[in-house]
Design a protein that fits this description.
Layout lengths: L5 H7 L4 E4 L2 E5 L5 E9 L6 E7 L10 H18 L13
Antiparallel strand pairs: 1-2, 2-3, 3-4
C-alpha cells in the first residue's frame, strides 16, 4: 500500500497526524492517543483492506467529534490514493 499524504491530511484534519511507517497516529485535546492502519485482506477473489482504529490505552473519550473528522480525513486520503487514476479532478475535496 502506498503511504498516505500526511501533509495533505494535516491541512484539513482537526488533529495533527503523524506516521511511523504504515501506522498513523494522532492525539486528542484530552491527551488520548489513537492509531490508524489499513491491513490487506488476502483473498483470491478481490482486494480489500481492513480499517483499524485503536485506542491503545483504552481511555474513554468524552464525545469528541474531532476524532471522527480526523478519521474521515485519513480514510478519504487512503481512498483517493487508491483510486487516483479513476477520480475526476472536479470532485470536491474536504480532506
Amino acid at each position: 500500500m502506498n503511504p498516505l499524504n500526511v501533509n495533505r491530511i494535516n491541512i484539513y484534519a482537526p488533529y495533527k497526524i503523524w506516521s511511523d511507517g504504515e501506522i498513523y497516529r494522532f492525539e486528542t485535546d484530552y491527551g488520548i492517543r489513537y492509531l490508524v492502519d489499513f491491513e490487506l485482506d488476502v483473498n483470491p477473489y478481490y482486494t480489500a483492506y481492513w480499517f483499524n482504529l485503536t485506542n491503545p490505552e483504552h481511555a474513554k473519550s468524552p464525545g469528541d467529534t474531532k476524532i471522527a473528522q480526523t478519521v474521515v480525513c485519513i480514510i478519504e486520503n487512503r481512498v483517493r490514493g487508491a483510486h487516483r487514476a479513476t477520480r475526476a479532478s472536479s470532485v470536491r475535496r474536504n480532506c
